[in-house]
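Late entry, evening session. Most of the bench is empty. Finally got around to the prediction I had been postponing all week. Sequence below, unchanged from the version circulated by S.P.
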Amino acid sequence: MKIVLALVILLHFTVSFSQWTRVNQLPSTDIASLYHKDNILYAGGKNIICISQNNGLTWHSTSTIPQLFLVSSIIVYQNELYAAAPNTCVFKSPDDGATWQNISAGIFPSVSDFCEFRGDLYAATQGNSVSRDF
């Protein structure tokens, strides 16, 4: 009986610890957010979004996003890339991050997350409820 109990406890501790491997291909930067759509992986970093189209084997970066220190929220909505960070601005890019447009008007004080639901884009804000479609 003691052997069975010892094996069960050993099995429990073996399964409960997962093994994480660092993605070395990402640029050496802080990553604050992850998002995926249509087999494309997006990682929000310092003033940029890193994009991988091959399961993280290689990455390329968008142009610098003005006024965003650390991209904490990412979404692709109607083929446009959106980025936001708390207490700053909301930006969108129609060209996969080559250029960025500030669309913060009416969304204050900050966007904490994006969500697409039934064809509409929603933004959760800190202190101003939820906004729909920019």
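Two things to note before I forget:
The longest strand covers residues 111-117.
The helical segments are 2-16.
Will write this up properly tomorrow.
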